[in-house]
Specification:
Elements lengths: L4 H19 L7 H4 L16 H25 L4 H7 L5
Helix pairs in contact: 1-3
């Protein structure tokens, strides 16, 4: 393995946070959409955010993205030389 466990954990942590912000809006119903709401609350407030299931899905999605990235790195598709050549920059 070309990098250490701490580097892999840091990369996974960043991927996890990015995918969290991607998965947060899915399945959210607002009080305005359902027509139910407590008096004095914002109509755009969610009724049930279901954070537990979203965190589980987020962990699965980020693990898949991280695994695909690791496979691409091990296969040589994500090397500095290849990416710099693809971007037209000298290495």
């Amino acid at each position: 393995m070309a990098y250490t466990i701490s580097t892999a954990f840091a990369i996974y942590f960043v991927i996890w946070w990015v995918t969290l912000f991607l998965t947060l809006p899915f399945g959210v119903r607002s009080q305005h959409e359902d027509g139910v709401g407590a008096p004095g609350t914002d109509p755009g407030a969610p009724i049930a955010s279901r954070m537990g299931i979203k965190l589980i899905w987020n962990t699965v999605i980020s693990a898949v993205v991280f695994g695909l990235g690791m496979l691409a790195y091990d296969a040589g598709y994500l090397s500095i030389e290849r990416l710099s050549k693809l971007m037209g920059m000298p290495y």
